[in-house]
Design goal:
By secondary structure, this protein is α/β, with parallel strands linked by helices. It has one domain: Double Stranded RNA Binding Domain, CATH 3.30.160.150. It has three helices and seven strands; from the N terminus they run H-E-E-E-H-E-E-E-E-H. It has a five-stranded mixed β-sheet with strand order 4-3-5-6-7, covered by helices on one side. Strands 1-2 form a two-stranded antiparallel ribbon. Helix 2 links the parallel strand 3 (39-42) and strand 4 (75-77). Helix 2 (56-71) runs parallel beside helix 3. The longest helix has 26 residues, at 144-169.
Length: 171
């Protein structure tokens, strides 16, 4: 019995070394990167929305680059990565919601929409072109300029999470 107990951790480690490489590259974030993928490229996302916010393109592009850098072991390259994302911001709008009895809005909603093309050179069946949209509400009594930066940062991170999940987590 004593011999079995002391060899069990070694057997378990050997088992893991055999089984895990067969599953491709896996990270604890849930990302399933194809075997052989070493690089990712995220192109600059220009703002083609009718209403242009000057900081939005840079904020969103950086949020998307950050999530791939922080949650995978892929090296960020300027172009032609094994996994490549490109696209554009197609909508940035503020709309009134929650109309009160006196025909004024109790809240406003900032919505940002991006169109994304994902190319997986190693597994072309995983390529996609999709539109992603996120919004946040804020009180209409709040000056938009005082919350704009926080709203844009939060929405950009949420969009980046959704794009990351569709690209490499396959949710």
């Amino acid at each position: 019995m004593k011999v079995f107990i002391t060899k069990w951790p070694i057997a378990f480690i050997i088992f893991l070394l055999i089984v895990i490489p067969g599953c491709g590259i896996y990270s604890f974030t849930g990302a399933s990167i194809p075997p052989g993928a070493k690089t990712v490229s995220v192109s600059y996302f220009p703002n083609r929305a009718p209403l242009v916010e000057p900081t939005l393109s840079e904020t969103f592009t950086n949020a998307l680059r950050d999530i791939f850098t922080n949650q995978t072991n892929l090296q960020m390259v300027n172009s032609n990565g094994d996994l490549a994302l490109s696209g554009e911001i197609v909508n940035y709008e503020i709309t009134p919601i929650a109309i009160q009895g006196n025909q004024t809005a109790a809240q406003n909603r900032l919505t940002i929409t991006v169109k994304v093309q994902f190319v997986n050179k190693l597994e072309p069946s995983m390529d996609f072109e999709s539109t992603f949209s996120q919004y946040l509400d804020y009180p209409s009594t709040t000056d938009f300029n005082s919350v704009k930066s926080e709203l844009i940062n939060t929405i950009s991170k949420n969009l980046a999470d959704n794009i990351f999940n569709k690209s490499v987590v396959n949710w």
